[in-house]
Amino acid sequence: MINQQQLWDHHAAKQYDTPGEGMFSPGVLGPTVEVLSELAAGGPAVEFAIGTGRVAIPLQEAGVPVSGIELSHAMIARLREKVGEERIPVVQGDMAEASIGADYTLAFLVFNTIANLLTQEEQVRCFHNAARHLAPGGRFVVELWVPQLRSLPPGHGGTVEVSRPGYLLVDTYDVLRQHVISHHVQFGPELSDGREAQIGRTPHRYIWPAELDLMARIAGFELESRWADWDRSEFTAESRSHVSVYRLPDQRKT
């Protein structure tokens, strides 16, 4: 059994933020915040797996009231170094079960994090939990990668996803359980503790877009939009990720 508290510990929280670079770069965060602000439609938003506030803080600064759910005590502590509870309230708990209220116009779950739930049952419960938080007509946005099983060489169970100086990312697959383990290998002089290499592993359960749509339907959502990225580019068979927007029917309009 994976202990998520140990996986997302104080070391992980400290290493998570990369201000101005990578997923914290303006080129990534700018379009993300723009789209989410529009989808919130003037109402409040709740982020599942809010982490250290990568998206929540700039979204709140853009004028959208944001609350959050986060499992990791260490991630919440890092968030609290940046903003107080009065600005961004957070409930500690499992995003498939924990509640921080209702009548939000937007719930969102970004950067592949729904895959941190390692069973289909947990992932379906997450959709149900999002529905419980939303007002009629509310939206649930999920950002997720597309499994790259076509890149698996015959007879091999893994792929090298990233190879650059000082860093390797190797993904190994269990196609029966739809599990993938990402092996993060850091090496070279940038390691501060004197070791030659450092290895971290993160487990995920990958989800095909069609399976994600079925989970949404089970929880009462309808697919409203799907893009390849936050720039609203077209999603195609070659896309490696997607941003999917699901909406609850507004019974008041029927």
UniProtKB/TrEMBL annotation:
Lineage, highest ranks first: Bacteria, Bacillati, Actinomycetota, Actinomycetes, Micrococcales
Enzyme class, broadest EC rank: transferase
Presence of keyword Transferase: yes
Transmembrane segments: none
InterPro entries in UniProt: Methyltransf_25 (IPR041698), SAM-dependent_MTases_sf (IPR029063)
Enzyme Commission numbers on file: 2.1.1.-
A single BP term in Gene Ontology: methylation
Keywords: Methyltransferase, Transferase
Gene Ontology terms for molecular function: methyltransferase activity
Superkingdom as given in the UniProt entry: Bacteria
Keyword Secreted found: no
Domain Methyltransferase as annotated: residue spans: 46-138
Name of the protein: Class I SAM-dependent methyltransferase
